[in-house]
Amino acid sequence: TAYDNRGASKTGAIEADSLEAAQRLLKKRCLYPTKISEPFQHKRQRTFAKILFARKIPPRILTAFTRELALLLQASLPLLTAIETISRASSSRQLSHILATIREMLKNGATFAGTLSAFPTVFSPVYVSMVMAGEHSGALATVLDDMAELLEQQDDLQGNILAALAYPCFLLLIGSVLITVLFTVMVPEISRVFLEAGRALPAPTRALLLASKLARSFWWLLPLLITALIAGWKMGKKIETMALLFDRTVLRLPLVGGIIIRTGCARFCRVLAVLLEATVPLIQALPMAGKASGNKTFIHMSDQATKEVRHGEKLGRAL
User: Fold this and answer.
1) CA distance 21 to 24
2) Which residue blocks in the chain are alpha helix, DSSP H?
3) Given this model, what pLDDT does residue 316 score?
4) What is the pLDDT averaged over residues 163-183?
5) Is 119 helix (H, G, I), strand (E, B) or coil?
6) How far apart (Å, rounded) are the C-alpha atoms in residues 3 and 9?
């Protein structure tokens, strides 16, 4: 929306690389804009973009993007050209939309780390901080290569954990199905034989028959209880003290707690090492490494260690 030399209002569209370029073009046409907005900021399209960007990108796609960007920058391609090249070749529609938006923001003078921070569900604080350190040190390609390596290690670690838990989960599923069939189908049939015989049943058998009867009569309580537990867990995770208590309890569980502790330590140490190598200050790197562990206990630990290091304590003693 603009005014011409006569003061008449004009409304229309113009093609330009950025808002500043659009203003220059309008000035050449003797038009003085009062409002300029990009097409994707239309209400319906903006809502679509908000939904699109709110979803997380699969780790393999994010890793591939990071590795490709590092290789293109190492080949001395400008950042804008590298992002446009990856955007056109990407098989992910969501990533292409995000990269197109990042490219426009870079044209308007934003830093690369600043554009990435606009998509917190896609680029983690660790990712953004490493990019920021790479921009400041002039070694963005090297930092991105290290970040791709870190993402691959985390993806492999998660895959190994899921593979290790697959067999126990399969046994748990099969056992649950067998117990359900036993209580709802087999026990009622066997109970008829005992009742027809007219003999007194021992206490364990009577308890088993009662449990079977309750399972058939109140089966709807089980899904209701599971739903309530899931809802309570999600609500509890939003409360800081409850989330910390839950994560501490999980760490004390036999077998599972040990796996989570080792996984959290591995992520904490790897992320901290990569951040320090990227010249991120220790005071900033410690909280980010704690968040990367995925457990509130590690986050609380890293925050406490940061306070002690800030007051002059050595890192080893603080940890």
Assistant:
1) 5
2) 19-28, 43-54, 59-74, 79-89, 93-107, 112-116, 125-137, 140-181, 187-197, 203-217, 221-238, 240-251, 256-277, 282-292, 296-310, 315-318
3) 92
4) 88
5) coil
6) 5
Q: What is the pLDDT of residues 247-300, one digit of tens each?
A: 888 888 887 788 888 888 888 888 888 888 877 788 888 888 888 777 888 888
Taking the complete model, does pTM exceed 0.85, yes or no?
no
CA 63/CA 154 separation, integer angstroms: 10
> Rounded to whole angstroms, how far apart are CA atoms 40 and 239?
36
- Rounded to whole angstroms, how far apart are CA atoms 186 and 190? 6
Q: Could you tell me if 33 and 1 are in contact, meaning their C-beta atoms sit under 8 angstroms apart?
A: yes
Q: What is the DSSP letter of 218?
A: S
**Token pair in block for residue 272:** 């901290």
- pLDDT digits over 58-80, tens only? 888 999 999 999 999 999 899 99
* 109: enclosing H helix or E strand: none
**Dist. CA 52–CA 92, nearest whole Å:** 11
Q: Mean pLDDT: which of 76-80, 117-121, 187-191 is highest?
A: 76-80
**In the chain, what is the straight-line distance between the N-terminal and C-terminal CA atoms, in Å?**
59
pLDDT for 49 equals 46
CA angle 92/95/101 to nearest 5° reads 145
Q: How far apart are CA 126 and CA 46, in angstroms?
A: 27
Q: What SS3 state is found at 9?
A: strand
Which pLDDT score is estimated for 39? 58
- Return all residues near 266 (Cβ < 8 A) that are at least 6 apart: 157
User: Are the CB atoms for 43 and 88 separated by under 8 Å?
Assistant: no
- Please determine, for residue 48, whether its predicted confidence score (pLDDT) is greater than 50: no
Residues written for the chain:
319
Which DSSP category does 310 fall into?
H
Tokens of 308: 């002690």
